[in-house]
């Protein structure tokens, strides 16, 4: 059944959009229409930003305890409407139900609550010999998100913005706008004052420049592709707005000599296959000692076989479709390119079950003998495609790991954590996962180089939404 959303959420009210243009949200599991949402235009942007600017004075003056209470109230509302949020994620981007429940929705609710605990840090001050520093909210923030973890990325921006005392415009990806509209309703019912949170569904490429250059915006927090992130920064630059960029990646994963190969390869394959490979920090370049390449390929193929695509609404499905048919054809083109570039296809590129033919499915795909000059090793594929790359010495592995325009994440599996940590310190990336560690929403997350300049999550993430003021005594 298709749900037709008719309104934007502006200044505490469900507001008819200025234009009657609609955005179609297509279910990538079967190609059917899942929802339609309004397409906000410049008039709607002006109204939302005016509301956010007006609300800032009183909202930023509220106590941290009050804001923490509202964050918990919103989280309670999310718990109560968890099934709707799960359905939105499955229906718009094809995430399997188990993952949508545990990671995309429950994980996001838990992470959102953690910002209630951090709100009190807005009262921290640091005293030096003749001055004191305090933190203040940065102002009106535009929060632009992609489609791959739509609720989690929303929460990673909205949580710290509210905790800090900022007012916001939420701009979800056009492919996955529904969870933001549900959240707006939850926020409304939780009693968040009018104008503090506004939701504009729109096509980013159409309204991005107007939105990000608007005089009433103090900060843009953008998560998405490096290409769009650059456009956002260019639009914001003349107004000297703060821009926090969380962009793409092509993250290396060094399996050092002496590591438990079976455990290390399993971890690496699963890391790439989860969410059908649509994870910005996925460890997509697996570096393996040359003498262990064949063994690594064998293990990788065995693990990949456990990740056969299926209907995302089936509880046992581990991999659903890609989030759109456009993404499916993009990934398929990279697979063909890898074959043409001479990479060895270990598994993937095989015909799928006929029952999946209407969906945007791609089989788990593993290339080996990949060199770092191949396009499949340099560009972000954003699908279930892993590149295994042999190396002769650890020095060479570190050089290959750093030979990328990106620097979002990395991983090291060595004989023990001490050795892995030493290797990790030599990789130019914002995170390094040691010995099979999992994502941690308390730890700062963000990129070096073309992966961005921001840090999200935890106390560092809260500080992104603050200005530092010095009181000179
Ligand atoms: P995208 O850049 O096409 O879109 C992301 C968001 O930006 C969407 O909301 C879109 O509407 C908006 N947008 C597009 N053009 C814009 C413009 N000119 N001005 C303003 N907004 C604009 O990216 P995508 O395809 O939705 O997401 C995939 C990308 O996101 C991948 O590159 C992935 O690595 C990256 N990503 C990064 C992180 C991170 O934290 N570093 C997390 C998730 C995804």
From TrEMBL:
Residues 14-470 form the Aldehyde dehydrogenase domain. Pfam families: Aldedh. InterPro entries: Ald_DH/histidinol_DH, Ald_DH_C, Ald_DH_N, Aldehyde_DH_dom. Keywords: Oxidoreductase. It comes from the Bacteria. Belongs to the aldehyde dehydrogenase family. This is Aldehyde dehydrogenase family protein. It comes from Alteromonas gilva.
């Amino acid at each position: 059944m298709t749900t037709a959303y008719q309104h934007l959420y502006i200044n505490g009210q469900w507001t008819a959009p200025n234009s009657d243009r609609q955005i179609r949200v297509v279910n990538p599991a079967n190609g059917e229409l899942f929802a339609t949402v309004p397409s906000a235009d410049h008039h709607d942007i002006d109204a939302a930003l005016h509301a956010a600017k007006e609300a800032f004075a009183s909202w930023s003056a509220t106590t941290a305890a009050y804001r923490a209470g509202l964050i918990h109230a919103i989280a309670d509302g999310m718990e109560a409407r968890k099934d709707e949020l799960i359905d939105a994620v499955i229906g718009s981007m094809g995430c399997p139900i188990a993952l949508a429940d545990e990671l995309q929705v429950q994980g996001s609710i838990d992470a959102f609550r953690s910002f209630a605990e951090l709100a009190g840090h807005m009262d921290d001050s640091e005293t030096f010999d003749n001055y004191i520093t305090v933190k203040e909210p940065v102002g009106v923030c535009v929060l632009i998100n992609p489609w791959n973890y739509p609720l989690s990325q929303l929460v990673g921006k909205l949580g710290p913005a509210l905790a800090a005392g900022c007012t916001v415009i939420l701009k979800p990806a056009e492919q996955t706008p529904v969870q933001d509209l549900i959240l707006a309703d939850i926020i409304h019912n939780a009693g968040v004052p009018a104008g503090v949170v506004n939701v504009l569904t729109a096509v980013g490429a159409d309204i991005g420049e107007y939105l990000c250059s608007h005089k009433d915006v103090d900060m843009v927090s953008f998560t998405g592709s490096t290409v769009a992130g650059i456009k956002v920064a260019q639009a914001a630059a003349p107004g000297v707005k703060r821009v926090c960029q969380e962009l793409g990646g092509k993250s290396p994963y060094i399996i050092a000599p002496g590591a438990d190969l079976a455990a290390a390869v399993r971890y690496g394959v699963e890391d790439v296959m989860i969410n059908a490979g649509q994870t910005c920090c996925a460890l997509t370049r697996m570096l393996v000692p040359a003498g262990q390449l064949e063994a690594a390929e064998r293990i990788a193929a065995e693990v990949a076989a456990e990740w056969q695509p299926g209907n995302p609404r089936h509880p046992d499905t581990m991999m659903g479709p890609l989030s759109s048919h456009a993404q499916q054809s993009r990934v398929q083109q990279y697979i063909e390119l890898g074959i043409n570039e001479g990479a060895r296809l270990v598994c993937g590129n095989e015909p799928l079950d006929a029952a999946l033919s209407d969906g945007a499915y791609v089989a788990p795909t593993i290339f080996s003998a990949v060199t770092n000059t191949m396009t499949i090793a340099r560009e972000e594929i954003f699908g279930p495609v892993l590149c295994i790359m042999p190396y002769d010495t650890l020095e060479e592995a570190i050089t290959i790991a750093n030979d990328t325009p990106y620097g979002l994440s990395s991983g090291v599996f060595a004989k023990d954590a001490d050795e892995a940590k030493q290797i990790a310190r030599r990789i130019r990336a914002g995170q390094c996962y040691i010995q099979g560690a999992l994502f941690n929403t308390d730890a700062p997350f963000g990129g070096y180089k073309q992966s961005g300049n921001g840090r999200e999550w935890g106390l560092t993430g809260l500080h992104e939404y603050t200005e530092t003021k010095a009181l000179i005594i």
